[in-house]
Amino acid sequence: MKAIIIGAGIGGMSAAAALDQQGIDCEVFEAVKEMKPVGAAISIWSNGVKCMNHLGMGQIMDDLGGPMHNMAYLEGFSAAQMTRFSLKPLVEEVGERPCPVSRADLQSRMIDWWGRDKVRFGKRLECVTQDENGVTATFTDGSMAHGDFMIAADGAHSIAREYVLGQTVERRYAGYVNWNGLVEIDEAIAPADQWTMFVADGKRVSVMPIADNRFYFFFDVPLPKGLPEDRSTVVNDLKGYFEGWAEPVQRLIDAINPDTTNRIEIHDVEPFSPLVKGRVALLGDAGHSTTPDIGQGGCAALEDAVVLGRCFAASCDIEGALQCYNNSRLERVKDLVLKARKRCEVTHGFDPAETQAWYDELRAETGVGIMSGLSKTILGGPLG
């Protein structure tokens, strides 16, 4: 049995690992000639780390994950502490730690684990066909590949999605812009073992530790879509958006390198079904593109892979196994997309009264409420 896997990102490589565990031959095709990830880092919460362990790649998380032992919210203008707590109770409850990691390092290590020479780069999907003999992928360079089935992990702009659904699905602008990158850890900005967030006026500034003494940072600002900004203006833009904010925020802005800072207009995709058409299945962002507001985008792709592997472990019938995958994932991924959307709206001031109520809740938060929500999301995954 042979699978064609479209995409060598987190979803594609985890799918390859899961299918390989079931003795299925996998051929991986990646659109770009060289991996250049969007986004500096990614939050892999405990459910995602469990999936990496299950897929045999747990060592990668041990090597790349930062020491995120605590969590804190600070008021943006004054840096006054709203809440701060240890994540140890969460780790003890769910059985695994969260691992914020460099996205580039994670993808590179996953590809190396699989075998870089086994990934065919520069193969951008153009169209998909299938019949009783299997699935054929045609690429923009005119080449083709054939397999018994296809796992399409070709991202938020998926070509395969249109084939599966028979229509184009428009991405939805979430209403805010995110700047992100990496800086050397500076404890004048925040403690080195803590996820620290500054919040005010529907805006957010965050730093979290990753490996090699680095902070992953991001700035969120509610803005209209399509503003003409670029790397050359990033420092001045952020200085303007965060004028009057506390000294640690100003220090972070001064520390960033505009040449390695990403500016992303955040989108998601309305939950849809099905994820499968015959012998073609969507996985990761191709099937459930979400905002990053609950840190579950990468985790959901890893969960997809684990469930995919389980379905093939239970059945050698390709279409039956893919339908099992579809049925097992639809409600879970819909819940994650909508939960992230709701968190996005509260965090970014879509209803100012609701956002202010959240700020007031944070000032009374002991950590129990936040960790309860995190725990529910984590334990809702396929590995508990």
Chain-wise SSE layout:
Elements (H helix, E strand, L loop, with lengths): L1 E5 L3 H12 L3 E5 L11 E4 L1 H9 L3 H7 L5 E6 L5 E6 L1 H7 L4 E4 H12 L4 E2 L4 E7 L2 E6 L4 E4 L1 E4 L7 H6 L5 E14 L9 E7 L2 E8 L3 E9 L11 H8 L5 H9 L6 E8 L6 E2 L2 E3 L2 H4 L8 H18 L3 H30 L4 H13 L3 H12 L5
Parallel strand pairs: 1-2, 1-11, 2-7, 4-13, 11-18
Antiparallel strand pairs: 3-6, 4-5, 8-9, 9-10, 12-15, 12-16, 13-14, 14-15, 17-18
Helix pairs in contact: 1-5, 1-10, 2-3, 2-10, 4-13, 10-11
Please provide a written account of the structure.
This protein is of the alpha/beta class and 384 residues long. The chain has a single domain, classed as FAD/NAD(P)-binding domain, CATH 3.50.50. Helix content is 38%, strand content 27%. It is built from 13 helices and 18 strands. The strands form four sheets. The chain has a seven-stranded mixed beta sheet, with helices on both faces. A six-stranded mixed beta sheet has the order 7-2-1-11-18-17. The radius of gyration is 21 Å and the shape is globular.
CATH class: Alpha Beta
Going by CATH, the architecture would be 3-Layer(bba) Sandwich
Number of domains: 1
The structure class reads alpha/beta
Kindly summarize this structure in a few lines.
InterPro entries: FAD-bd, FAD-dep_Monooxygenase_BioMet, FAD/NAD-bd_sf, HpxO. The protein has 384 residues and is an alpha/beta fold.
Short descriptors:
single chain; 384 residues; alpha/beta; FAD/NAD(P)-binding domain; 13 helices
